[in-house]
Amino acid sequence: MSASVQAPASPPPAGPWRSAVRALLGDRTALAAAVLLAVIVLACLAAPLYASRIAHTDPFNADVAATVMLHGQEVAVMQPNNNRLHLGLTPLGPTWNPGAYLLGADSQGRDVMARLLYGGRNSLLISASSAVLCIVLAAIVGIVAGFFGGLVDAALSRLLDIMWAIPVYLFAISLSIVTISQGLRLGPVTLESDNLLLPIGIIALVYVPYAARPVRGRVLALRNSEFVLAARGLGVPPARILWRDILPNVSGTLIVLAPLLMALDMLTESALSFLSIGVQAPAASWGTIIQDGEGLIYTRPWVALAPGIAIVLTVLALNLLGDGLRDALDRQGSGPAGA
Amino acid sequence: MKRLVSLLACSLLAHPAFAAAQAHRGGTLRLTADGGGGTLDPQINYLSQYWQMFVVTNDGLTAFAKVDGLGSREIVPDLADSLPAPQDGGRTYVFHLRPGIRFSTGAPVTAQDVAASMRRLFKVGSPTAGSFYGGIVGADRCLAAPAGCTLASGVIADERAGTVTFHLTQPDGEFFDKLAMAHAYVLPADTPAHDLGNTPAAATGPYRFTAYDPNHGATLERNPYFHVWSAIAQPDGYVDRIQYEFGLSDEAQVTAVENGQFDWMFDNKPLDRLGELGDRHTDQVHIQPLFALFYMPMNVRLWPFNVVKARQAVNYAVNRRAMAIFYGGEAVADPLCEMVPRGLDGRSGQCFYTKGASPDHPAAAWSEPDLQVARRLVEESGTKGARVTLIVPDRAIEISMGVYLQNTLNRIGYRTSVKFITNSIAFTYAQNSNNRVQISLDDWFADYPAASNFLDDLFGCENFHPGSDSSINMSEICDPELQKTIEAAKRAEPFDRAAGDRLWAQASNEVMATAAAAPLIQMKYVDLVSKRVGHYTYTLLYHMLFSQVWVR
Amino acid sequence: MTPALLRRFGQTLLVLFGISVLVFLIFFATPGADPTARIAGRNASPQTLAFVRHEYGFDRPLPVQYLRMMQRLFITRDLTSFVGHGEKVVPEVMRAAPVTLSLVGGAALIWVVASVVMGTLAAATRGSLLDRGLMVLGLIGISMPVFWLGSVVNLLTQSRLHASWLFSWVPGLGYVPLSEDPLGWFRALVLPWCTLAVLFIGIYGRVLRADLVAAYREDFIRTARAKGLSPARVMVRHALRTSMISFVSLFGLDFAQLVGGGALLTEVVFGLQGVGRLTYQALANLDLPLIMATVMYSAVFVVLANAVVDLVYVVLDPRVRDSR
Questions:
Q1: What is the predicted pLDDT for the residue at A37?
Q2: Do the strands A189-191 and B217-222 form a parallel or antiparallel pair, or are they unpaired?
């Protein structure tokens, strides 16, 4: 056959997003993870429904004198111990009855299952928002540092080094303590100490060095690639190069970062809430419920076990999803620059 | 009173069990706490954890009787040989020192040491220099210029006669109580006039500090120069050594004491262990009265609590039983209706704000809240719908109380938000009038067993300092009628205790009539000891008396 | 080489200076953090407040206070805490350091060994059930909040299964100094070691596996195999060596962060009075001297680790070495 025979015109290559999604759909583990995530999100969204229709309980206001009907008997939610000194009050244990205190009560007599679902809303909201915010900030910092290089890169890298030098949790803790005690005043805007934007912002901020590093690395590699050098040689303005050439090729890195960051953020948020400097009472998050359960761990372990299991499942699903995305995008190559 | 005291003293010394008690002598008492609390200087340290040690290492002119139970409220002479009668209309007291008492350095305790210690109080900036000892003549000059403090006309020592004369600007019926406080303990005159830090002061009591590390613990051993001069003021110790170790969490402490690794723990027992303690270690647990309360001061200068009916509404609405449950249950806390805890004289014993009662028709005890009356009062006050911010320290118990109180305030018609403040700064934050705090949740512990510790401290005009972090009159109240009653009570006290108590009770009623605060609960103290601890002795002010328990 | 070292040293000092200024400013920006009333004591009179304010120098301008604090922290080393009168913060940090070092050191040993074994096995049998199983296990390890895992471990070993032969040896929560009782030290730390290691075994196992798999595609590996070297030898002497680079750099940074206080959640849950727990308590009490001491301590470690890791890169990777 003559080598000059033209190969049939191949269809235009599908964009990285579409082919990634297609590859992802073929990956069964990632798909299962996505489904699990969807189930968790839906369950948490249904929290008000559960609390009012099914469990008939107010998960935020303790009613310490409440009683509940169990097997036809009226049982107090907070049960005094019957020792000689009448010392101690134990909350109700799991009834395994969705209608009333499925997982039992916490030390204030509140329904743990209802709080679990409400807490999930806050945990998911905070981790998703801070992941998005972090990616935006890391993209800006990473691209600017990687593309412009020189003094800008040096200054930004030093700043990121300083931020990363403080152990992440301690950095987040110190910022939280400062803002939680007094709220944050930014000019005309005041964020009260129970505003969720505070933990969202803090968690996003502390992971910017972590996320900006791979972005910067990618941009550095891209900057020296042929097509970018060509564009610069042609005199294309930097803004245009950034928008049309750099950003689309960095997007792969960012997409892969998203679920992994969300997983990290969820773990960080739960740690902050566990230390009482994340989500503030009376709002709940999985971390605050674990904290509630700490004191009851030996007598009513389910108060601490349930939110922990919820976190493990969610973070696991996110990690599997992230792995799947990374594999999917890797299979597409690293973009026009080639292997 | 004096007869009772001397009877008690005689009975202790002549007790037939005295010889048998020798059999329990010896051993090491092992104590544990989460953390230490700083300086060994008894004139500066204000923590009850350390006062519990100072009380067996040092002495003042007077002391609280070191006996178990209610008897420990009584004042007895310690380094002085008797409680002097007030002279000069209650402005002068002449104390005669007991001869033969020595410091742990071997030097004798002299009148000069007493005078020097009173001066040193001011020089080192003791926290209570102003509040307790400001009534001494010349104290105001010492407060303004501590370095050159002489108290030349206020505290006069006469070496030859062995007396110390105190001149006060006003009669003070609680002066003996104040002299019994650790800040007035007598130290050698040559003790340096700065914070001693980790160096122990010379001791006069049965024990002295032999080792101290503020992070790791303290060791106390017998003071070789100690002898019993008054068994009721400062008895000899049974154990030879006291070993105090810091560093275990409260949960770990409970486990350690249960297992016998330590004999006693300082920290509050975590709520989740109370049941286990009551069920399985009943004989090792002692539930003791405490002169302490939780309350909510309401700022009488800020909307909406500048209206009396609004404050009364809050008092009617709060569910004091729920507060007791959040503290740990009704075994460890009781609803409280007035700002003076049970066990103190000077209470009215009346409950104004419960269902079926009112300031005009008080009940004998609190039964339940009355939300209906509360809502009506809110309407009448015209404050319905007001925005209220409740300040709460961010500790577990306070958080659960705070959330519940927020709900209560909302139910009677306010729009309430809760602000949780880091525990270490919550107290100073709530005191500073610049923060415009409307209502906060606080606790208060008595320094010594007197109604004044609550009524005067928390509602007296002189304890409101605008713009300062140290202004414990958080209600910011300065009511002339109330102040008159308080002053009258203080004037009557030195001469007629009963009249003084009646006036304090009247003041308590006036405080509750004007509802400057909402008392919530009075707490009890849960004490846990190991199995081997015997002769458990609990003083109302200093908790377990280390010198009077035995381990063999 | 020397000018580069000097430059690096200068940068390190700059970073440390930056951190200390940041901490100082954050503290003073926190309203209500004025420690005067807390130090003076309950119900102190205004005169006492003024006395304390002057004695501690809180009435001086901020830069002066900063310099005094730095001097007392680094030069005279007698900086005292705001919360505990007379407690020197430097010795306090130095006493907490061995606790954290014991915890992190033991955990590091466990996680390095376990993750190398895990990563190597997974890479060697890649695609198999063992590979997938190990990776899923690692993933689960990464997904557990360490403080929750610690609570569950406590639940089992201190309470539910404490009586059984499995865990009756577990002592109460807390640290036993090595010099006092080596066996007790070991027994008290075994469970915290494993709990802390779980998270990192997952991370490092996966990183190592990914690097090994990538390395296998490299030219020099193909050369080694073409030479007829046994697969084990290829794995251990060639692939592992280059893959250890990112492993070691990650390890250096993580180890430094942990020693500097990043293990605070594990310390809190197991009652170990380490640097992390100390830092957290300092922050919660708004105790600036102690905060400064602990943050400086941890920053020194992390910055040092950064420098060491760069050095290690030079030593381990011939490509980097030759290009210099």
A1: 94
A2: unpaired
Backbone phi and psi for residue B495, each to the nearest 5 degrees, phi listed first = -110, -30
B279/A282 Cβ within 8 A? no
**Environment class of C163 (CB within 10 Å of its CB; exposed 0-12, middle 13-18, buried 19+):** exposed
Of the candidates C170, C159, C220, the one whose C-alpha atom is nearest the C-alpha of residue C193 is C170
How many angstroms separate the Cα of C247 from the Cα of each of C48, C126, C146, C252, C257? 57, 19, 21, 9, 15
Which residues of A fall within a CB distance of 8 Å from C149? 308
Q: Which chains does C contact via 3+ CB–CB distances below 8 A?
A: A, B
Minimum CA–CA partner of B526 in chain A: A87
Determine whether the interchain pair A167/C262 forms a contact, defined as Cβ–Cβ distance below 8 Å: yes
In A46-105, alpha helices (H):
47-49
Mutating which of A87, A92, A272, A276 best tests the B interface, going by the most B Cβ atoms within 10 A?
A87
ipTM: 0.83
Q: How many CB atoms lie within 10 A of CB A155?
A: 11
Binary contact (B276, A90; C-beta < 8 A)? no
B472-504 confidence digits (pLDDT tens): 999 999 999 999 999 999 988 888 889 999 999
Q: Which two tokens stand for residue A252?
A: 């792969």
DSSP 8-state class, residue C273 = -
Which residue on chain B is closest to C41 by alpha carbon?
A: B127
What are the angstrom distances between the C-alpha of A204 and each of A131, A175, A198, B84, C250? Answer: 6, 12, 10, 69, 21
CB contact set of C164 (below 8 Å; sequence gap of 6+) = none
pLDDT digits (tens, 9 = 90+) for C100-121: 999 999 999 999 999 999 988 8
Query: Which of A67, A78, A79, A89 would best serve as a mutation to test chain B binding (most B beta carbons within 10 A)?
Result: A89
Q: How far apart are CA C74 and CA C90, in angstroms?
A: 9
* Spatial distance between the Cα atoms of B311 and B301, rounded to a whole number of angstroms: 12
Mind telling me how many Å the CA of A193 is from chain C's nearest CA? 13
Strand partners, A70: A73
Give the pLDDT score at A335.
Answer: 39
A225 touches chain B (CB under 8 A): no
Residue A83 pLDDT level (bands cut at 50, 70, 90): confident
Q: Which helix (H) or strand (E) holds A130?
A: helix A112-148
From A122, A109, A78, A71, select the one nearest A280 (Cα to Cα). Answer: A122
Query: Does A303 reach chain C within 8 Å, measured CB to CB?
Result: no
For A228, what's the count of Cα atoms within 13 Å in the CB-facing half-sphere?
Answer: 25
Question: Hey, are the CB atoms on B469 and C36 less than 8 Å from each other?
Answer: yes
Number of H helices, E strands in chain C: 15, 0
Q: How far apart, in Å, do the first and last CA atoms of chain B sit?
A: 35
Instruction: For residue range A244-287, list pLDDT tens digits in order.
Output: 778 877 888 888 889 989 999 999 999 999 988 888 878 899 99
Higher pLDDT, C278 or B313: B313
Tell whether B422 is within 8 A of chain C (Cβ).
yes
Crossing angle (nearest 10°) for helices C89-124 and C182-216: 40
Q: What is the largest CA-CA distance in chain A?
A: 102
Range list of H helices, C33-82: 36-40, 46-56, 62-70
Distance CA(A67)–CA(A74), nearest Å, equals 6
Question: How many Å apart are CA C306 and CA C300, to the nearest integer?
Answer: 10
A260 touches chain C (CB under 8 A): no
Cα B86 → chain centroid:
25
Q: CA B152 to CA B483: how far, in whole Å?
A: 31
- Please give the pLDDT value at position C136: 87
Give the CA angle between residues A281, A284, A286 to the nearest 5°.
135
Q: Which of B146, B216, B428 sits opposite C32 (nearest CB)?
A: B428
